[in-house]
Amino acid sequence: MFLLLSVCVCALLLGAHTQSQDRAALWRGNDRSGRCQYTFTVPSPSEASCPQAAGGGPEMESLKARLGLLEVLVSRLTGGGDTGGPPRGGAAGEAARSQPGLQEALNRAVGERNLLQGEKERLEREVQGLQRRVEEMRRETEKLRNKPCPPQAPLVPPSPPRQDSRPAGGSNPMSHLMGRPNRQQGDTSSLRDTAWQYGGTPGFQELKAEVTEVPAPDGPEDNTGCGELLSVGEPVIHRKADTIAGKYGVWMQDPEAQAGSPYGSKMLWRIDTVGSEIRQLFGYEDMEQLSKGFPSKVLLLPEAVESTGSTLYRGSLYYQRRRSRTIIRYDLASESIAARRDLPHAGFHGQYPYSWGGYTDIDLAVDEQGLWAVYSTNKVKGAIVISKLDPHSLEVKKSWETSIRKVAVANSFIICGRLYTVASYSSPNTTINYTYDTEKSQGKAVAIPFKNKFRYNSMIDYNPAQRRLMSWDNFHIVSYSVRLGGGQPAN
Ligand code: CA
């Protein structure tokens, strides 16, 4: 601003100089009212004193006009004038227009001021936004402080341990996920939960009577065998990713953790799949550690992972190698590749993805019957192909061709040998719209409500041990209870 002011003063002085005498002087000072006042003195070429007492002479008139202009400009530039744009009229405007250089300098100064003004307003808005967020967080903290803690609160009666007569997805899905026994291994240690410590307290029988009268939220369910999917519960949030790398990803739990494995049956694994060189596999001791974001193990995979189709089964991570149709079996105990094999004719790297893209060409799944691959080929022109894989060698044991296009659906999962597809990855209220029964080799349309709470669901898989859907919806690691019915015993 001062630079511009100096330019203005110099330009005026230069103009004045050419029309006056060799020696001239300019003083600047404030008058009594504080207004900026300029005094300009020029010696007369022919007379010892001023030829006229006041005004007089075309040169003096010209200088006065220029000084007047200078004063107006200085006043405006220093903020004393109006706050509008460049001068639009009057003597100052006329004079400014007569000096293209001055006009340009003035325009630049005004432009600069407008820019600064805009920046100031933006910062003010930002400050207001931050203040609002602080206020919201303060209210949230207040709310949480006033909320009682249900499991340990003295007002809530402790519930006795039960042999899980509830359906998958009871009223406390997180503890259910953490504490559910692994039926295949009969690992009773995982039955332990906070209720155990109250097992011998007085009044246990009364409490038991009360608890058993509470109806299960999802109604009666046969939890011992397989069956068709009847409904899916509300998404339960376990963790929100901290960084952009967690916008989409895959999380898994081995439904058949092997005895002697260095990792317990509660171990959860997670891969953030944003990026092109995805090789980190994070391990968490249990759901609580996952929710807190404290991994106990980080494995660096020898070959990069493609997308969100990985799965865990019997101590191995199964995943699609980046930019290939190669399936890799990575043994968690020895931390090495145990098997690799191309999935015959499978499209990869964006050829037959799910509707959200993300190179989701090959989706691996595990259910009560074993390991599956869901993908497509040129031969079936993009329709979903289901293949049953040998979990040891990765060979295809049998394949089924469905009539639904892979790119038309958001994701899929397999329960009891039946494939289910989800219609939309972004609609908060969508449906499971198709199912294919591999036993009957028949598909059919269905309409089972399904919620994408965070509107960007990049991974949905079924875990047969937990009897839950595990999913990754827009930075959020979530799970869903499922209700099965009308089926046959599990294999
Ligand atoms: Ca899936």
Walkthrough of the structure:
Mean pLDDT is 75; it is low at 1-22, 47-56, 80-93 and 151-222. The chain has helices spanning 2-19, 58-77, 90-98, 100-146, 173-179, 204-213, 287-292, and strands at 25-30, 36-41, 228-232, 236-240, 249-253, 268-272, 278-284, 297-305, 311-313, 316-320, 326-331, 336-342, 363-367, 370-375, 383-389, 396-405, 411-415, 418-422, 429-437, 442-451, 457-463, 468-473, 476-485. By secondary structure, the protein is α+β, with helices and mostly antiparallel strands. It contains 7 helices and 23 strands. Helix 1 runs antiparallel to helix 2. Strand 1 and strand 2 (36-41) form a beta hairpin. Among the domains are: 26-39 and 59-101, no CATH class; 206-484, Tachylectin-2, Chain A (5 Propeller). The N and C termini lie far apart (82 Å). The structure holds calcium ion.
Q: What is shown here, in short?
A:
The chain has 491 residues and is an alpha+beta fold. Among the domains are: 26-39 and 59-101, no CATH class; 206-484, Tachylectin-2, Chain A, CATH 2.115.10. The protein has helices at residues 2-19, 58-77, 90-98, 100-146, 173-179, 204-213, 287-292, and strands spanning 25-30, 36-41, 228-232, 236-240, 249-253, 268-272, 278-284, 297-305, 311-313, 316-320, 326-331, 336-342, 363-367, 370-375, 383-389, 396-405, 411-415, 418-422, 429-437, 442-451, 457-463, 468-473, 476-485.
